Amino acid sequence: MKIVAKSEVFARTRIVSGMSQRELARQAGISHSYISLLERSMKSVGPATAKRISDVLQRPVEDLFDIR
Question: Superkingdom, according to UniProt (predicted)?
Answer without folding.
Answer: Bacteria
